[in-house]
UniProtKB/TrEMBL annotation:
Span of the signal peptide: 1-43
Protein name (database record): LOC684107 protein
Family (UniProt): Belongs to the somatotropin/prolactin family.
Segments forming a coiled coil: none
One GO process term, biological-process aspect: response to nutrient levels
PROSITE patterns named in the record: SOMATOTROPIN_1, SOMATOTROPIN_2
Alphabetic keyword roster: Hormone, Metal-binding, Secreted, Signal, Zinc
Residues reported in the UniProt entry to bind Zn(2+): D239
Listed GO CC annotations: extracellular space
Organism: Phodopus roborovskii
Record-linked PANTHER family: PROLACTIN-7C1, SOMATOTROPIN,PROLACTIN
GO MF term set: hormone activity; metal ion binding; prolactin receptor binding
CDD domains: prolactin_like
């Protein structure tokens, strides 16, 4: 079990026993015994056929999407380390951690307020089994799409801040680019699974722009802290969901990988 400080300040997005939110459900999906049961998911058969869409197979598209999601997840993990160790942000970020440890209710409320948490995501393996392949893809698409606006403003604000380290700004730009590429790839996957699918215009709305642009230093940095925390949780979530769907699609070695 992680201690509270490690959970909030380090590279792992889970909150342990403090609260139940999306990643507690994801923990269950990591069970090897449950992975072996995913073959029995009841959903419409998915055929890995090549089409006129650049002759790219569904499996290849998933492989590409997973490469993008893994890279993004790695970058957000690096960002968490940088933000807690670099002089640019370490003082403020450490203060927020100490405030959280003094007030657990405040911590839970804050870390459960990511804008994408409004989505109805599976909390258990059984719930995951009951979601169709197509609906799982739509869920992933909603999460990825909902980060377009926040990441754009994050890059803009960091670029305009005095003293922003190049290492932090360059990684943030890369995360934004990867998110855009992942969005395109998932839309391609959806178009293969459900040709002619109408675009969903309803996505979770990010409402922290005023805080991110605030002149007050503490409010501004708190918005940065929360945003980086939330994007870290979501990149981890997206990566796991995509691996889960690929497992259902090709039933390959990844289904039996301990690391998955």
């Amino acid at each position: 079990m992680f201690d509270n400080f490690t959970i909030i300040s380090g590279n792992n997005p889970k909150l342990g026993n403090i609260t139940k939110f999306r990643n507690l459900g994801l923990l269950l999906l990591l069970s090897v015994s449950n992975l072996l049961q995913w073959e029995k998911v009841t959903s419409a058969p998915i055929h890995d056929n090549k089409t006129d869409q650049g002759d790219v197979s569904l499996k290849d598209l998933f492989d590409h999407a997973i490469t993008l999601s893994q890279t993004s997840n790695d970058l957000t993990r690096e960002m968490r380390t940088l933000l807690f160790s670099h002089g640019f942000s370490t003082k403020m970020f450490t203060k927020f951690i100490l405030d959280f440890l003094k007030d657990k209710k405040y911590m839970i409320k804050t870390l459960n307020s990511c804008h994408t948490f409004s989505l109805n995501t599976p909390e258990t393996v059984e719930e995951a089994r009951n979601i169709s392949f197509e609906d799982f893809l739509k869920m992933i698409l909603s999460i990825v799409h909902s980060w377009n606006n926040p990441l754009h403003h994050l890059v803009t604000e960091l670029g305009g801040m005095k003293g922003t380290p190049d290492a932090i700004l360059s990684r943030t730009k890369s995360i934004e680019t990867l998110n855009n590429l992942l969005l395109e790839t998932i839309m391609m996957i959806l178009s293969k699974v459900h040709p002619g699918l109408e675009k969903n215009e309803t996505y979770p709305v990010w409402t922290d722009l005023a805080s991110l642009q605030a002149d007050d230093e503490e409010r501004h940095f708190f918005a940065l802290y929360k945003l980086f925390y939330c994007v870290h949780v979501d990149t981890y979530t997206i990566d796991l969901y995509l691996k889960y769907l690929r497992c259902l699609l090709v039933n390959g070695d990844i289904c039996y990988s301990v690391e998955f």
